[in-house]
Design brief:
Radius of gyration: 21 Å
Number of strands: 13
Order of helices and strands: EHEEHEEEEHEEEEEE
Number of domains: 2
Shape: elongated
Number of helices: 3
Strand order of the largest sheet: 1-3-2-6-5-4
CATH class of the largest domain: Mainly Beta
CATH superfamily of the largest domain: Ribosomal Protein L25, Chain P
Strand content: 35-45%
Helix content: under 10%
């Protein structure tokens, strides 16, 4: 797990008007929170957030505040403007050494499938998987090698080989599969109408007593 340093100012003024002023100045308002501690309203440069937001990787954030204190955390939530798609608010969740955390980790497919070359269709079903582990064991992403997958082959959550983590979803859920192309004739001579394209499960996470802006 790689670490990215993020410098932040502590916000003294809260509210919508103050948050809008921060955004006009090229910064983004956010919140650092840790259970049993007081939330810390912060702001960071918009450009400094890019490596943490526009990526398929998971990173540990070394948050450095202007008062000289430091916190280890992860990005827990990011809010975007529905029109401009710019980041308008973010949440950082503090980490405690020796305490496990729950996190959704991106799934990255690796290789070129044999089944696709045979005329099959790649169906990537789960793009993120929720797991629990110690912060030091948190993977940047989950790699699934699809090179040897033929038409009809499926990789489930239970097939993933990842040590020191506990998956929090059903082990039988498919992560990726190679299906027949729609209308393709099968070996039995029947015309396949295509496998049902399963939709990824969307898991929404939040926190209690969340402070907006």
């Amino acid at each position: 797990m790689s670490e990215i340093t993020l410098h932040a100012k502590i916000r003294s003024n809260l509210g919508r008007s103050s948050s809008n002023s921060i955004r006009r100045a090229g910064n983004v308002p956010g919140i650092f929170y840790l259970h049993n501690e007081t939330n810390i309203p912060i702001e960071v440069r918009s450009l400094d957030l890019r490596p943490l937001v526009y990526t398929a990787e998971t990173h540990i954030v070394n948050l450095k505040l202007e008062d000289g204190s430091e916190r280890q955390c992860i990005v827990r939530d990011v809010q975007f403007d529905p029109i401009t798609d710019k980041v308008v608010h973010f949440d950082l969740m503090g980490l405690v050494k020796g305490e496990k955390i729950k996190m959704e980790i991106p799934v990255v497919l690796e290789g070129a499938s044999v089944g696709v070359r045979e005329g099959g269709v790649l169906n990537h079903i789960l793009h993120k998987i929720e797991l629990e582990c110690l912060p030091s064991k948190l993977p940047e992403h989950i790699v699934v090698d699809i090179s040897n997958l033929h038409i009809g082959d499926i990789v489930t959550v239970g097939d993933l080989n990842l040590s020191d983590v506990d998956f929090l979803i059903d082990a039988e859920l498919p992560v990726v599969m190679i299906v027949h192309a729609r209308g393709e004739e099968t070996e039995a001579g029947e015309v396949s109408e295509g496998e049902e394209m399963l939709e990824p499960e969307v898991i929404s996470k939040g926190k209690s007593d969340k402070e907006e802006d």
